[in-house]
Design goal:
This protein has helices at residues 4-11, 21-29, 75-80, 96-101, 114-123, 125-135, 141-159, 163-171; strands at residues 36-41, 59-64, 86-93, 175-182, 188-192, 197-198. The chain is α/β, with parallel strands linked by helices. It has a single domain (4-198), classed as Beta-carbonic Anhydrase, Chain A. A six-stranded mixed β-sheet has the order 2-1-3-4-5-6, covered by helices on one side. The longest helix is centred in the C-terminal third of the chain and has 19 residues, at 141-159. It is globular, with a radius of gyration of 16 Å. The two termini are 28 Å apart.
Length: 199
């Protein structure tokens, strides 16, 4: 698998841009984008209120458990069609599923299905290992937020496993973004590749 670092070094690309929702809307209005595909967490009930709404340009949205790339069926075909020039992994904090995935004690409003739990425990395995290595067994708010950021960036890596996405990033300038919505304030933090932080 080609990692972000490998592709950056090989092709001198910036696959992740620090672009806010407002900046993306400006880009769409300026005609520098053909459209945007967004993979968002299914817990984000108001996700459509946060989407860019630009007349005449398509916005494709997948919502699934934790905003996981592996559940975004048809994404590769969409990218190959040239209908989008921006991909956004869009998560949120706090996220019940991330909390569950890293072993935090959490009371769900609705008890998740056992298959959903098993699936997400599998999806968050590497993030769980990162948390254990860096923070031990703690799962306070700081740790959960760092776990959320880590998980979103791992989904960006998963995008590069899709051949059509990797080809479009190398050959056609496809831009990939990681966003994190703060549920209480509705602020949108974006990943800045220069500082390697969400801001």
């Amino acid at each position: 698998m080609k990692t972000i670092e490998y592709v950056l070094a090989e092709r001198d690309l910036t696959l992740i841009s620090a672009v806010s929702k407002e900046e993306l809307e400006e880009r769409l209005l300026a005609g520098t984008s053909t459209g945007v595909a967004i993979i968002a967490c299914s817990e984000m009930d108001d996700v459509f209120a946060e989407m860019p709404r630009i007349s005449g340009l398509p916005v494709f949205v997948w919502q699934n458990v934790g905003a996981t790339v592996h559940e975004a069926d048809g994404l590769g075909h969409l990218v190959a069609s040239g209908k989008v020039s921006n991909l956004v992994i869009y998560g949120h904090y706090p996220c019940d599923l991330i909390h569950l995935g890293v072993g935090g004690q959490h009371q769900f409003e609705f008890e998740p299905d056992e298959l959903v739990v098993d699936h997400f425990l599998y999806e968050t395995k590497r993030t769980r290992e990162m948390v254990k290595e860096r923070y031990g067994d703690g799962a306070d708010q700081f740790v959960i937020r760092k776990a959320t950021e880590d998980f979103l960036l791992r989904q960006v890596e998963s995008l590069l496993e899709i051949p059509e996405v990797l080809d479009a990033a190398i050959e056609q300038g496809l831009r990939i973004h990681a966003w994190m919505n703060l549920s209480e304030s509705h602020e949108c933090y974006t990943f800045d590749p220069a500082t390697k932080k969400f801001r």
